[in-house]
Each structure stands twice: as structure tokens, then as C-alpha cells.
Amino acid sequence: KAGVTQTPRYLIKTRGQQVTLSCSPISGHRSVSWYQQTPGQGLQFLFEYFSETQRNKGNFPGRFSGRQFSNSRSEMNVSTLELGDSALYLCASSARPTAGANVLTFGAGSRLTVL
Amino acid sequence: QQQVKQSPQSLIVQKGGISIINCAYENTAFDYFPWYQQFPGKGPALLIAIRPDVSEKKEGRFTISFNKSAKQFSLHIMDSQPGDSATYFCAARGSGGSNYKLTFGKGTLLTVNP
């Protein structure tokens, strides 16, 4: 069974640009969550999608957005990139929304560097 | 606002020793407490988890101790092995409404020396 696939694995952008990250969940999983991981702040929740609907959102500015498609694949977008957006962006999938799911399976992440 | 505080930041243990990582939480509405293990270049993977109605859970060499009144929980790794060297995160899941998300501690880098 394939795991959670995130693309691209590494990318470098400059300030002011925008970026789109992709996540393909485990087959059959309909819930996708996104987390930002930095050395200083650890893992911070960005948002969660289930059946194409955003169910929950963390405390991030509106520059961070996401969506989920009918096949459960998800994308997140960061516009007007800032240096502080440099981080590992992790996607996690579960069969059900976090409210009912006891297991989140994480992908390996997309490492974004903003110069 | 950090709701889950994890300590220590880093830990060095000799092979065969016991590794202990502690977490404390503030929100009494948390209803599920997992621990995740992360190796370099990989995403976190669920290691073991506990619910607040249980005081201890053991899976192999890994044990979670949970103290509801003190709002603390800890991970014990018995007979620590070099292969256990990784970053460990405790987490807590909120319950109700917009709180259904995992809040993570900042992580503990465990090094087990051979």
C-alpha cells in the first residue's frame, strides 16, 4: 500500500513568489491535514480537509491556503513568500477526519527554502 | 500559545539505558495523546498513543505513563538502542468544534550511543 506522497520534495523560492505543494493521501483516505515544521516552532497545524471541505484551520495568515480535490489529493499554496516561510511542510492523511481518526500517516514532507 | 510543553530538548542515553521524555499540557479538553517518532528525511510516524482514562500503556520497549490530575504524560523507552536515535514528538488532540487537531510538543532529539 503506497504511503502519503508529497511533491516536490525540495524547492527554493525567492521572497514575494508563490508556491504550490501537492499531497496524495493513502488510497482510501479522505482526510488530509497540513503541518508546518520548523526548528524553532516544531510542528504547527495549518489546515485539514475532508471530502473537499476545509474542516479546521490553524493560526496562519491568509497567505496560506489549501484545497482538496474529489480524488482526495490536496494542494497547499503560499503566496507572497517571506523568509520565515522556510520550513518543512508535512501532509498527513487519515481515513476519517482528525476528530475520529486515531492514526495520522505523514508524508516525508516538502522542504521549502525562501531566499 | 504553546499548549503542549515537551522536555528535554535533547537527550543522550547509552545503549541499554532508559530514555524518558516528558510532556505537560494545559487544555483539559484534550482527549487523545499520541507520540510520534521522526527520523531524518522522513515524516513523523505514530509510535504509541494513550487516552486519558488509562494511566499506562505499554507496547514492547515503549511505555506511556499518563497523570491526568497533573496534566502530564511521558514516554519511556526501555533498553534503548542506537536505532531508537530520532526526534520524538508528543501530541495532544483537542475535542469539540474547531479543536479537533493535533497540537505537538517541540520535540526531543534522542541520541543513543552504542
In short:
The complex is a heterodimer of chains A (115) and B (114). Helix content of chain A is 0%, strand content 52%. Chain A has strands at 5-7, 10-13, 19-24, 31-38, 42-50, 53-57, 64-68, 74-78, 87-94, 105-106, 110-114.
What does this entry look like structurally?
The complex is a heterodimer of chains A (115) and B (114). Chain A has strands at residues 5-7, 10-13, 19-24, 31-38, 42-50, 53-57, 64-68, 74-78, 87-94, 105-106, 110-114. By secondary structure, chain A is mainly β. Chain A is built from no helices and eleven strands. Chain A is globular. Chain B is mainly beta and 114 residues long. Chain B has strands at 4-7, 10-14, 19-25, 33-38, 45-50, 56-59, 62-67, 72-77, 86-93, 102-104, 108-113. In chain B, strands 2, 4, 5, 9, 10 and 11 form a six-stranded mixed beta sheet that branches. A five-stranded antiparallel beta sheet of chain B has the order 1-3-8-7-6, with no helix packed on it. Chain B is globular. Chains A and B meet through β5, β6 and β10 of A and β5, β9 and β10 of B.
